Amino acid sequence: MSACLYDHLCSGCDRPQWTIEQRASQLRQHVSQWTNLPAQIHQFGEWSLRDRVDLTLESAAGITRLGLYGKALGSRELVDLTGCPQLSPQLENWLREFRRDLPPLNGRGSLRLRVSPTGLRGVWLDFANADIKFILDEGAWLDRQAAQGVVIEMGQRRKRAHRDETRWRLIDPQPEAWFETWLTTSATMRDSKAADAHAVAQPLYGKIASFTQPSRRANRELIRLALQHLRSTDTALELGSGIGNFTLPIAARAECVFAWENDKSALDDLRFNLESSGLTHKAQVRAVDFIRGQSSESPTTESGSKNSSNFVLVDPPRAGLGRFASELAKLEAERLAYVSCYPESWAQDLQTLSQGGWRLKELHLVDQFPRTRHYEIVSHLSRD
After folding, report:
1. Which is catalytic among the residues 10, 13, 84, 341?
2. How far is residue 6's CA from residue 86's CA, in Å, rounded to a whole number?
């Protein structure tokens, strides 16, 4: 029997009928359409994985709902979720408490709830400007949240709600440790027991609205798998660094890392994270949109010297590498780790990389989205 009351209604879980064993079989079968290489499955159970959740809030005709859309194709009907067993216990408790005092809204908006490793609670309100202005002017809801120690960000620009002597207003957000990464200085992360023995949690600072993996527990395994072939003597190149989830572990173990990221907000947090972890001297951060090619820099001429990077990690968005895959195929590095949340774009990029002489050597499927069709891929390639 399912532990969820909403399986037949909510679109959050589109594959609730699979057992853990059936799911592992289905994931292997799905990825086998693109490669014959056996995939290793990494699972964490069905429940209590997520440490952040994105929901929709709707208020109309005196009725307020907070949840996800229904299962019916194209449904715009919200399923009002009083709880969700996919969430970590701390996050589910935060959801239940948040529902007791919802922000005033006339219409529909999106929000994100987070709980940090230290228990700090936060919410990002991605509402229309008129709704944000009303909440700021009304002030009472913000006062109540502030009294509970809740951090609030608002709008697409991810500003932080701050009360001065006279009123609430929006200011630039200060980084908070909403997530964590894992650092190790051991020569190899191949042996999981050795990795656990040497890995140390490192706070990962950012905004509530920043991109992170959904689960801290699954993230630790992602890092271990992605960096298991990284050597202490490597000069590494990371494409799509974000706020530093992989950058910090690479910098802690490798000779140095060149970190490329385009998003300004992520770049600010990446630099903050490198400084707070004492790893700034091991990393060179550059604002490069490598997918769109909006830079004069090329990965084959990093630091003005060809082939200076012998380990490359890429973690692109769902759309994959696009035209940049052909550029990456030319890179004469020794090892390439490709992390992907979308198998279809990964498979397309893999075909392009194989034409450049890269060969898939190792394949891991990380089941951090249980009861859905989604999964994370960690793949390792090398030259023939």
Report:
1. 341
2. 11
